Amino acid sequence: MSSERTYHHGDLRRAVLTAALDVIRTEGPGALSLRDLARRAGVSHAAPAHHFKDRTGLLTAIAAEGYGLFADALADAPDLREKGVRYVRFATGHPAHFQVMFRPELHHPDDPELLAAKARAAQALRAGVTGLPAEGRGDDPQLAGIAAWSLAHGYATLLLSGNLDDPLGDRNSEEVFRSLAGLLFRNPESS
Fold first, then answer.
1. CB burial class (10 A; 0-12, 13-18, 19+) of residue 189?
2. Average pLDDT rounded to a whole number, residues 94-113
3. Cα 21 to chain center, whole Å?
4. Alpha helix (H) ranges present in 1-79?
5. DSSP classification of residue 43
6. Which of 84, 99, 107, 110 could form a disulfide with 152 if both were Cys (CB 3.0 to 4.6 A apart)?
7. Inter-CA distances, 48 with 11, 43, 96, Å
8. Which of 14, 112, 111, 8 is nearest to 57 (CA)?
9. How confident is the model at residue 47 (pLDDT cuts 50, 70, 90)?
10. Mean pLDDT lowest for which of 9-13, 92-96, 125-129, 160-164?
């Protein structure tokens, strides 16, 4: 009976993804092993390959899931500043996804699910920049987008790595981000 249990699982794909996210959160993506994940999920060592084929397939699935969750988090943010806050909130709430999403060397670059999720997230971010009047973002919306992305991504990365613990002290990290975004991007209507 125990050998039967080894090969049957209610939702193996989700169990492997959850175990992988736990490993990434604590040890980083380099520590992933399909064999170890199978052991953690209580299935045969070959079972995860049925869903993901290989380690890169698993990381691609994690990135696609992350971009989908990210796009959902950004979807109804009213403006660029709040999209940035949601970016930071997503990173701190989903640190394992965040570690994998922005590491293209870890993914299958032509995966349709990944490409669709990335496109949704990019569109949500672009909408925040294009929603600002030109005097609030400068003449080049593409450069403004890079600046906004750099600010949110850099800030989130510094938060996750603990590099802002001392500089922020007891201040609310989201309020600090709103202030930083206000230094770069001005909305004349709210000034």
1. exposed
2. 96
3. 12
4. 2-7, 12-27, 34-41, 47-52, 55-74
5. S
6. 84
7. 11, 8, 19
8. 111
9. confident
10. 9-13
